[in-house]
Write a structure and sequence with these properties.
The complex is a heterodimer. Chain A has helices at 10-36, 43-69, 77-91, 96-122, 132-160. By secondary structure, chain A is mainly α. Chain A has one domain (10-160): Ferritin. The longest helix of chain A is centred in the C-terminal third of the chain and has 29 residues, at 132-160. The radius of gyration of chain A is 17 Å and the shape is elongated. The model of chain A has no long low-confidence stretch (mean pLDDT 92). By secondary structure, chain B is mainly alpha-helical. Chain B has two domains: 3-66, Arc Repressor Mutant, subunit A; 73-145, no CATH class. Chain B has seven helices and four strands; from the N terminus they run αααββαααββα. In chain B, the strands form two sheets. Chain B has a two-stranded antiparallel sheet. The radius of gyration of chain B is 15 Å and the shape is globular. Chain B starts with a helix and ends with a helix. Classes of the chains: A mainly alpha, B mainly alpha. At the A-B interface, α1, α3 and α4 of A face α5 and α6 of B.
Amino acid sequence: MSLQQRVDSDQQLARLLQIGIVLEEVAEARANNHRESLPEPDADLESLLVDAAELSAAHRDRLEGLIDELAADSIPFDEINALVEASYGQTKPDDFDGVLYDQLCNEETAYKFYDDMIDAIDASDATFSVDREHLLSVLRELRDAERDAVEIVTTHMEERE
Amino acid sequence: MNTADQYLKAIYLIQQEDNSPAATGRVAEMLDVSPASANEMIGKLESRGLAEHEKYKGVSLTDDGIVQARDALQTYCIIERFLINVLDVEDFRGEAQALESVIDGTVAERLDTIIDRKSECPDCFDPELDACGCLDVESLEEAAAD
């Protein structure tokens, strides 16, 4: 059991990157599902959801690039999409506010995940198969993009109040 | 899950198992830390109103501490289930232990949307198995060995 918030091995790092990929896939699949099941057309919200899904797909690609360098496997999007589809009925938001709140959760969760991961890598002296500076630089870019995405969703929420 | 939550989870599980306050030595043993470190953190939990320590008896969680400990245990259960259900990880317990310090409750909640977790969670957690009691751990281990 590790009480220290740190990443100590390639295996642990690869597993965390896989989890990051799944989080992005969940976010992408949920954004797509939200867009297809809006109670009525809403151009602004649809545009936000398209952008969010594209952002998640782009982040997934960046994480897959890192995973490749660690010789670990990614998780196919179709697999996660099927899991999201299977549970969407029970977890789908009821209205526009619910959709925005779910989007906010997606972006905040991803931000928190990358932020914790950066701290855990910073706290470790371990040598990884992937270049540490490159790894941290990618994770920081992703975290910053998620922070911006949180702001975008928050702005939409405020505008609807 | 931060260090304090890992302590709360350990104290909660020991209290459940022993049906009495958790001895500091057992907490230290479960977390693989020195008794001095355990004492220090228990003092911090006390000052935050999450635990009460009685000399020669051990540490008990307050109502607030129990709520937080159960959340931490649930996060751990989600990580284990996710590793089994989604990533097909054979050593799901070992990896969950290694990952729990880096996976926050909010992240676990998102992962929870795609796993099959029982409504009894976290009451079904079996400390001896270090896994959900509803999981057929033997079959999982046999499948992993094949």
